[in-house]
Amino acid sequence: MQDVADLFNALLSKERESNDELQKARRVLIEGSKEVLCSSQTLGIKRMGDIDEKTFQKACKARFPTEEAQIKAAELCSL
């Protein structure tokens, strides 16, 4: 019974770590998008957690030269 409790505690700890990591990545993505996108632009969400890359590409093309826009869009989508 103690082994099951230990396993449960280990899994619970791992779940909390993973959740904290996801929340940190979310905050970084939001802060990064503020630098590239202006307030009148919106982000499209396909599924919970998936980012619509075309929206980032369109916004970056409007703000940066073509080559740099592709790089910036890829950077933002990979966060």
Report on this structure.
The chain has three helices and no strands. α2 (53-63) runs antiparallel to α3. It has one domain. It has 79 residues and is mainly alpha-helical. One of its GO terms (biological process) is gene silencing by siRNA-directed DNA methylation.
Key attributes of the depicted protein:
single chain; 79 residues; 0% strand; rod-shaped
Mean pLDDT figure: 81
Poorly predicted segments: none
In percent terms, what proportion of residues is strand? under 5%
> Given the C-alpha coordinates, what overall shape results?
rod-shaped
Instruction: Provide the structure class.
Output: mainly alpha
How big is the Rg? 18 Å
Biggest sheet features: none
Task: Tell me the series of helices and strands, N- to C-terminal.
Answer: HHH
Question: Count of helical segments?
Answer: 3
Percentage of residues in helical conformation: over 70%
First-last Cα distance: 41 Å
What is the total domain count?
1
Strand tally = 0
How does the SSE layout of this entry go?
Layout: H1 2-36, H2 53-63, H3 66-78
What's the short story on this structure?
The chain is mainly α. It is 75% helix and 0% strand. The chain is rod-shaped.
